[in-house]
Amino acid sequence: MAANTTFIDPSVLASLDNLELRARVVVEGFISGLHKSPHRGFSVEFTDYRHYYQGDDMRHVDWKLYARSDKFYIKQYEDETNVRSYVLLDSSASMAYSSGGMSKLDYGRTLASALAYFITRQRDAVGLITFDDKVNDYIPALCRQPHLIRILRVLANLKAGTKTDIVKPLSDLASNLNRKSMVILISDMLEDEERIIKTLQRLRAMGNDVIVFHVLDEAELLFNFQEATEFVDAESSETFITSPASIRTAYLENFNNYLNYCKKKCQSSGVDYCLLNTSQPLDTALYSYISRRAKSF
Amino acid sequence: MTFLTPLFLFGLLAAAIPIAIHLIRKEKPPKLIFSTLRFLKNTSKKLVLFQKIQQWLLLLLRAALIALLAFAFARPLFDSNIASLVDAEPESATILMDVSMSMAYGDRFVRAKDAARDVIAGLSQGDEVAMIAFDNATVSVRELSTDLEGALAFIDDLNEPSFEITRYMPALRLANDMLESARHDQKTIHLVSDYQASGMGNDDSGWMLSPGVALDTIDVGEGATRNLLLTDVRSPDQLIENRSEYEILARVRSTGSVHLDQADVRLILDGQETTRVPVDLSETSEAVVRLPALFDSAGTHRGEIRVGSDDFSIDNSYFFTVDVMAKIQVLVVNGEPSTNWYEDEAHWLSLAIGGNAAESTFVLNSAVSADLDATLLTQQDVVVLLNVGSDLSNSQARALEDYVGEGGSLLIAPGDRVNAAQFNQLLGPLSPAVLNESIRFANSDYLLIADMDRRHPVLLPLGVDWGVRFEGYWSVNAAEDADVLMQFDNGSPALLERHVGRGNVLLFASALDTEWNNLPLQGLYLPFIHESLRYLAQATTKERAYRIGSLIDLSDVGLEGVRAQVTGPAGEAIALNQSGSSFTPRLVGFLTVDGGEGPEYYAVNANPEESNLVKMAPSTLVDRISNPETQPVQSAQVRTAQLVAELEGPQRVWWWILLLVMLMLLAETRIANTTYR
To answer: Which residue of A has its CA nearest to B54?
Structure first.
């Protein structure tokens, strides 16, 4: 399916200033190659009949067909699941890093928009939380078209903050969630990964579905710098002069250990983990979402 | 090892290029805001250290690579290969080693030996070499031989320079003669010297080397020289004992290429420093220093004048001796005493000897013939017999014989009272002549002195026209062993000398008063009497100052026929030559000669000519003595260079290939430093 679909390159996508348009381009391009939702719900749009089983709601029995066939058939409609999704977008300073194309923040913003658009289109409720070392924006989960506009507006005006504290907004959210929800974290997770994973595990243990979109720049993944460089930490302003060629192997070893840790811990905790390269299209992220959505609802 | 294109060795400097690039590239790297540093800072420190080592290793490899390329450009060749080509033509060489005193300056002698060894090292198997060490003469020689090890041993055996002056020409002539009989056509004289200008001497013979004999000059006299020299010292050779203070004059000169403006001159008498005088040479190169000295005892005093410190200490001392003598005891035996001065035979002589007793070098003792005895004689240095001879007893005559035989001296002036027969009988064994008859001229006739031995010590200072008129004289026949020192114009001897035993006898064939001649009235009388008595008293000035290397004959120092022991300045025994009568001092300082009567001291000094360190250009010597038919000498280096040029010419394409490789490597270094740091 994905092979037959042409997705927009993030660098092209970045040229679209209108975030709504950007989200629509992503989602429509994605949807065009996608089957309809396999979940059947009790909606207004009839799809099929099935035999009645004990326990089915009697309101959905087609009495006219019973009259004609003397059998109980239940009307089936396209589903409206009423899933509540929260998109948590990291807007710390490290997310502003870009090695040339879209920054991680821009990529995360586009992904959040696309998800919001897609979720809304699925008639699910979607909320948004943006944060750096504190929660900057909180939009509760609703399923209305104006609500999507509000989310997109917030995302469009989002600026990179300072330091990162992922644990705090996740903890706050965990405390406030009173029903099963889907928590989508979009972050580079360049913090204490142990604490982050623990918080995610806690959310998961509460029955929530958790998807982590680990957004990283290609330069962070490959560390393909050539000349000697004075690296400045985006959050702490600390500096480190080195010859990248001489430490590339060691860097990649450290970094891959970190990634493997995140991935393994997430997987072992039932947290969906999806590593995203900002130079790659957004379809991977959307597939991950749908996959999780399908499993859970 | 040699190089075909040694100029490319400058390319070794290019090895600094990678280092320079490394240093230049040390400017601050560009800043990059990165998401996090945690994965950078966690990189292994060991790894970073290893990377640094790798970088340095890479840098060293690059530098070494460029250096090796430059080395390759220079095209190294092993010496043995090239030498075998260069030395295809065998050589006959003579190495002249200057071992004169000036070679003792600084480390010249060591460098000269090293240079000679280098010459030998440049020779090949089959080449023949002769060795000559020289100063003003040949010191040692080794004939032409293919035994190069022997030549090296010859150099090793040269211990130290001599004290002699330099003379190039005799050594060059000898070397030239040796090479004329050499086996090989290529003949070279290698002259290792400091090229002292004075070494040419007064040679204006126009002599040249034989055709085919080339001169290779090896100069070890480069660099600045500093030298203080005592060019002249004036001291009394002989003094008669008194308490007066004398002045010794010393002339100090700065002769090096670097002028010394301060000096310190010291006088050392008999081993004790008595005077020290500072000398200011700031405005002049030469100064005369006056050194007061007091010689208060009889005997030979040894003096040394030493001038401050410089780089050439050998000529800093000048040695001299001063003979201080006791006054000469003269016994005048008057054969015709008289109370009238004009009739007294000894009047004029007494005036000449004792006129100023305090200043005189003589002590006059007067006696008549009857007083004469052996006891009286033993106290005298000289006995003068005036008109005495006939009235002596046989015992007195024997006493005189004994006296003279044991070293006493006699001056005889027979007068009119002497009987020839008795005189000849009594004093015949002593007298230099047999008296024949006394002759008095009448009619105002007279004789003059016509001939004399002007080299005799008595007459040496009296070599003027005498103009003395002799109206009376003794006709004599000289004894066989007597010397006639002076003759009248009629050919008759006037003054004769005879050595008897260890003594000496002079016979004046006339009177020493005015009775027979007017000599006492002449200005010559006083010096004649003084010189005669001084000579007879053996108080003549002995030559006690010698130059090093000069031949000292024992007869010159009064030791003729005596088996003497000679000791050098360092206490070493000096061997006499084959005849046993002479020797040659080889060290400066005092010689001690003991002929059995106590030691006699003689001063030996270096030749001041050798202290003049002014150089000449070696090319001056080459131009002067090189034969026009001889091809100019080409050093091994020049011959190597020519051969190298011939070998290297057709292969220059390698230059361009290596140059290209070098440029590529430099580009690689530059790019690598820019890109992969």
So the answer is: A246
